[in-house]
């Protein structure tokens, strides 16, 4: 697990995921909701709720460095969840 001091910039994280357009909280929110559509139907509502809760819990964040950390971590977490379900579907 990475420490907060070694978290890559959001641009690096986006490039690792094959996307380069997530730079703001609004873009992240839209990206994550779209990623939920790639999940199995029974899991989509759970992760949409999780995205909304995360967005609401960090809505008052004003430190640009902290926002970048949150974006990076959210992208990493989304990639992990998508891979988790991709692995499950490939094992069937």
UniProtKB/TrEMBL annotation:
Complex 1 LYR protein domain ranges (all copies): 24-79
Protein family membership: Belongs to the complex I LYR family. LYRM9 subfamily.
Protein name: LYR motif-containing protein 9
Organism: Acanthaster planci
Species lineage: Eukaryota, Metazoa, Echinodermata, Eleutherozoa, Asterozoa
Gene that this polypeptide is encoded by: LOC110982304
């Amino acid at each position: 697990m990475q420490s907060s001091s070694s978290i890559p910039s959001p641009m690096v994280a986006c490039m690792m995921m094959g996307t380069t357009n997530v730079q703001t909280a609004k873009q992240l929110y839209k990206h994550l909701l779209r990623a939920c559509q790639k999940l199995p139907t029974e899991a989509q509502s759970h992760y949409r709720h999780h995205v909304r809760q995360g967005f609401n819990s960090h809505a008052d964040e004003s430190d640009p460095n902290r926002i970048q950390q949150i974006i990076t971590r959210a992208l990493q977490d989304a990639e992990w969840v998508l891979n988790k379900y991709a692995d499950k579907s490939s094992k069937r």
